[in-house]
Specification:
The protein has about 325 residues and is mainly α. It has 13 helices and 3 strands. A hairpin with a 6-residue loop joins strand 2 and strand 3. The two termini are about 25 Å apart.
């Protein structure tokens, strides 16, 4: 199948790439958009919307862990399984909300309302009164993750990354810091506690993030980006930054994913399925960007493979439409 996909991809490179004005200055994004548009057009010939392919849409919505735990059910008993899936319901809540968000400028309240909307259904949140509230409003000023000697982390790499984390607060402190570092029995690794931002104001940090987000999306739309950064790389970095802040007690990944979906639609990018990737706070900027680039190509290859199945009438459940 991989050889076949490569062949189809090479053949498709001769197609004219229809690139939007927003992306014309970004070769990688432009090429991906052209390939995505061509595939979408070919699927339309079969009355299928490319984003509705099961192996893409369900995985994007519920995330890697939930998808592979119930893959057979999701693919073979789709309607009933999705009806019971909290992840699927949360994702749809988010998609419905971002569809109504301003196409020009987001406000701080949009993010808190998005958090509320995601977990609106009864039982989604341990304490419904926490919905839409920053973690500091709930007296959670310094949440932490404990990394023990038994955890399967490449700890030396993580330790080096967090010794001087690149993302800083308004006060100039690292957004993520290590504490209570202890050498494990094997003398090769260490256990430690990873603390999230515990400075003066989580709201200040979130507003900084939002101002950057609003500014850069507008600049991309106007072909006025002042930084040498591509849209794919920028959104990858912004997801990492948001999760490093972790403004809410729960649901930060879901909020970040919805905001990135909002941005990809505004910039007419190929949709990015971030929830299948490794937690970005444990990776460097370069590693995260490479993960995103690889995932985009994998997604387009998946669509290419499903199109071939459609043409040969040998269609797997993953390539069927919801």
């Amino acid at each position: 199948m991989q050889i076949l996909i490569l062949f189809l991809t090479l053949c498709s490179s001769s197609w004219a790439i229809a690139c939007s004005d927003i992306l014309v200055n970004y070769p990688v994004e432009c090429k991906a958009q052209g390939r995505y548009q061509r595939l979408s057009k070919e699927f339309n010939n079969y009355s299928i919307k490319i984003d509705n392919l099961k192996g893409y849409k369900i995985l994007k919505a519920v995330g890697k862990t939930s998808y592979y735990a119930l893959k057979n059910d999701f693919l073979n008993n789709t309607d009933a399984t999705l009806l019971k899936s909290r992840d699927w319901q949360m994702w749809n809540n988010g998609q419905n909300f971002i569809a109504e968000m301003s196409p020009v400028l987001l406000d701080f309240s949009d993010i808190t309302k998005l958090h509320k909307k995601l977990f609106a259904e009864k039982g989604f949140f341990n304490n419904p009164t926490d919905l839409g509230k920053l973690r500091t409003n709930n007296a959670e000023t310094n949440p932490k993750i404990i990394i023990s000697c038994n955890d399967n982390f490449f700890k030396e790499k993580i330790f080096n990354l967090f010794t001087d984390y690149d993302l800083k607060s308004a006060e100039g402190y690292s957004l993520l810091t290590l504490d209570n570092i202890k050498v494990c029995d094997d003398k090769k690794l260490s256990s430690f506690e990873l603390y999230f931002y515990k400075g003066a104001s989580v709201k200040t940090e979130l507003v900084r993030w939002l101002n950057d987000f609003n500014d850069m999306l507008t600049r991309f739309e106007k072909n006025d980006s002042i930084e040498e950064i591509t849209p794919f790389n920028y959104l990858t970095d912004m997801r990492r930054w948001f999760l490093a802040i972790s403004p809410f007690s729960y649901g930060n990944d879901e909020v970040a994913s919805a905001l990135i979906d909002y941005a990809t639609k505004r910039l007419q990018l190929v949709p990015i399925s971030f929830r299948e990737l490794s937690d970005p706070i444990y990776l460097s900027v370069e590693e995260n960007r490479l993960n995103t680039d690889n995932k985009i190509q994998q997604t387009l290859d998946f669509f290419e493979g499903c199109l071939y199945e459609r043409k040969t009438n040998l269609i797997s459940n993953e390539c069927n439409s919801i």
